[in-house]
Design goal:
Elements lengths: L2 E4 L8 E9 L6 H6 L1 H5 L3 H5 L3 E6 L2 E2 L14 E2 L4 H7 L3 E3 L9 H14 L3 E3 L1 E2 L2 H4 L3 E5 L2 E9 L12 E2 L4 H13 L3 E7 L10 H12 L4 E5 L7 E4 L2 E4 L4 E3 L15 E10 L2 E12 L4 E3 L5 H16 L1 H25 L10 H16 L1 H15 L10 H8 L12
Parallel strand pairs: 2-3, 2-16, 3-6, 4-5, 6-7, 10-12, 12-13, 13-15
Antiparallel strand pairs: 1-18, 2-17, 8-11, 9-10, 14-15, 17-18, 18-19
Length: 413
């Protein structure tokens, strides 16, 4: 089954681009992932491999020896053998702009790029410094040239002026880059890594970001990072994917009901002609430890109704804002504000060598765009005395996170 969003008729030659979401086999699973790659991708391969251009979001460092960087959240890596998964999938381009490819430092990041390229993959979204990381990757299909840009929010591991890393999200810079690429008559696909983990809707800022890129000349916009599927929209003739969910990202416990959406995703395939994108097709699947399972016909009606609900925040900004209020209200006391109130106070006796790691969660709250969205919105909820109503859509969020119809396949074999 698939959902086809055709918004105009094609002109002349056409080509397709498949963009797969987050791939992270986890370090201890690298060998199994490589050895079972053919079986894991068997069901999704006909859809993915039939695209003319094929991308995969590579969300971990390729490293076995380096020390992890100081950060909040897990440090993720895998062995080189995990690249066999991408080979079996027939991926061509690995997107590296995310919050984990820099998890083991600068040398590991450079090793990751070299390992990908030595294995025959093109990479985009990471480089030796900020300027290098921001470079577009130019690919050709059916006589047309597509420029791919890849950027992520400012969590950890992003490139600076003189240090390697992922490409940090810079909207003015992205818009300028798009303008220059359009002057050279390239088609432009913007791929992002951002948003709120486990929140099945875009924040109002993310909707505005996607639309700014579309209005700024992008021919298609793609986003991932949320670890659950979000909806899509066609904005002024430009297809926008809010988040397609995980592609292959095994967890320790498949019985946790609240993590159902972790294992539900969809593969977007964009269709282009010389004028831009003209169609978006989505193929839903479950990502399980030993296979990526396509949804069957029995789930089709339920998934399509569910997907319509996921698209609603794009169609109704007031609803989008209320959902985000409820998400902020739900996370305010137990994560964001608790951290701020427990934040160590600076004094003359501060030992920076000891406090370095302790400070990373606070640094992330202020530097990462999506974390900062929640801090700012929580402050407004309190200032405007809206705490009595801000949580009114919490049950709706829970319903979207764990729809009753969603039954995962067996995790084992």
């Amino acid at each position: 089954m698939s959902i086809v969003m055709k918004f105009r008729e094609p002109v002349g030659e056409t080509f397709t681009v498949a963009v797969a979401g987050d791939f992270c086999p986890r370090e201890k699973n690298s060998g199994q992932c490589a050895g079972e790659a053919a079986a894991i991708v068997k069901n999704i391969l006909p859809v993915y491999s039939s695209a003319d251009i094929r991308l995969l979001n590579w969300e971990n460092a390729i490293d076995t020896d380096s020390e992890p960087i100081s950060k909040s959240g897990p440090n993720l890596r895998c062995g080189k053998e995990a690249l066999d998964f991408a080979k079996e999938l027939k991926a061509q381009i690995l997107m590296l702009a995310n919050n984990h490819t820099g998890d083991y430092g600068e040398q590991a990041l450079q090793n990751t790029i070299e390992a990908c390229e030595s294995a025959g993959f093109a990479t985009v979204g990471a480089g030796t410094d900020a300027e290098d990381a921001a470079k577009a990757l130019i690919v050709e299909a059916k006589g047309m040239k597509l420029a791919i840009l890849n950027a992520c929010e400012h969590e950890f591991g992003f490139a600076r002026r003189h240090t390697p890393g992922s490409c940090g999200l810079d909207l003015p810079g992205l818009l300028e880059h798009i303008r220059e690429l359009k002057k050279q008559r390239f088609l432009v696909l913007v791929t992002l890594h951002g948003g709120h983990e486990n929140f099945p809707a875009p924040s109002p800022r993310m909707v505005k970001l996607f639309r700014a890129l579309a209005d700024g000349g992008a021919d298609a916009v793609f986003n991932t990072h949320t670890h659950c599927p979000l909806g899509c929209e066609i904005h002024n003739g430009v297809p926008v994917v809010g988040s397609c969910g995980n592609f292959y990202f095994p967890t320790k416990d498949y019985s946790i009901a609240d993590f159902k959406p972790w294992h539900l995703g969809y593969l977007p395939v964009y269709s282009f002609d010389s004028q831009g994108a003209w169609q978006l097709e989505l193929t839903p699947y479950y990502n399980m430890p030993h296979s990526i399972e396509l949804l069957n016909a029995n789930d089709e009606a339920d998934f399509k109704a569910y997907f319509a609900e996921l698209c609603r925040p794009f169609e109704d900004m007031e609803y989008c804002e209320k959902l985000f209020d409820s998400w902020c209200y739900n996370t305010m006391p137990n994560y964001y504000f608790q951290r701020l109130f427990d934040m160590p106070k600076p004094d003359e006796n501060w030992d920076f060598s000891k406090i370095h790691l302790e400070m990373m969660p606070y640094r992330n709250l202020f530097n990462c765009e999506s974390h900062n969205d929640i801090l700012r919105n929580c402050g407004l909820i309190i200032e405007e005395k809206r705490t009595a109503t801000a949580g009114e859509l919490i049950d709706k969020i829970r319903e979207l996170r764990c729809p009753e119809w969603l039954t995962l396949p067996e995790a084992g074999r």
